[in-house]
């Protein structure tokens, strides 16, 4: 029994470390990730649950020239992020309210503060945001889509799939950054990847090895204590 409990504790520690160490890395090394590793991550991630096993995910894995073409199409579009039209789905509410407003502000101020950008340095903020569109220099950029005929349940399933990718990546010494910023630029992305009209661009994701020398990767977000959001009922 002691041996079994010890094994359970060891397994829990491994899983917990993969989950807790997952974070949005915003600067990557150029070191390439081989296709075998990417396939292994996606294969494991596809064990995510989905309603009646529909498996609603569709993934476009890009590297090299194709990844660069996505970046160029967005950055040369002339459409600033604050003017980009969220016409496929809405990620954020039109008006933020508490406690979400405070959390959003803390995240933004914390990130920009880590890289020395002041609250009124709008051009520098825009430049940092634009780094989304080069996948923060990661060697692998993924674009995720879902069939627009599916309903909200499939989007819930999709979230679990995305989390599986990020956790599986951590188990292999890799980091990620999930990026909703790509969604409003579906018109620029579609022709590069030949994405059919019936697919909604959900998000992008950078995948690679963390660049530990960059200050943006020293930023850590907080989490609200359990007491703020958990109710135990017996």
TrEMBL record:
UniProt cofactor(s): FMN
Pfam family, one: Nitroreductase
Annotated ranges, domain Nitroreductase: 19-209
Keyword Acetylation attributed: no
Flavoprotein among keywords: yes
Family: Belongs to the nitroreductase family.
Keywords attached to this entry: Flavoprotein, FMN, Oxidoreductase
InterPro entries tied to this protein: Nitroreductase, Nitroreductase-like
Protein name per the record: Nitroreductase
